Amino acid sequence: MVKDASQGISFICNNIASYGGDPNRIYLVGQSAGAHIAACALVDQAIKECGEGESTTWSVSQLKAYFGLSGGYNMVNLVDHFHGRGLYRSIFLSIMEGEQSLKRFSPEVVVRNLKFRHAVSLLPRIILFHGTGDYSIPSDASKSFADALRSAGVQVELILYKGKTHTDLFIQDPLRGGRDELLENIIQVIHAGDEVALAKDAVAPPARRLVPEFMLQLARKMSPF
Asked: Which residues are catalytic?
């Protein structure tokens, strides 16, 4: 999956202009497992760019920033947690290609490895988002990854949302309408320095409610995440 994600990023980087996009404003974003896979692809690419003779079709320098939402970045530390949540160890290790692969697919572990310090220095700006009420992947996962990145000299920001669960930020809150704090935080990064866009953001009407509150509360209680 990491290779597939990297190929997808490569396609965007190499074709965005032909679709009317701005090649100077490419952002990488992932949520939950997507945040993990995207981070793996990003770190792997940085390592490839430091290797002699490595063939690459895109560069981490082409990305303005990476947004990681509710992600897990250290699979070694999350095995027991997932097992307790019902993603049993045997199944998880099968997905991860065996226990011996956990460190390789743990961006936090790779970032802490001094052998890859130069590669890590190539990483773009990283912004991590996490709800403190997330019991699928605890917010400590993002805190620990942010600490590792910061220690390696990467420009990183961590934004925590008090009491928000694994799905609140990107499902329940947008459906609720009104102010969307996560969206506002992302737009602030994307529109930074663009006075015209920021002015439009300031007068944009609030999003309308799409689902009654009782349904959102019911979904929150029933969701396995």
From this structure: 32, 134, 166
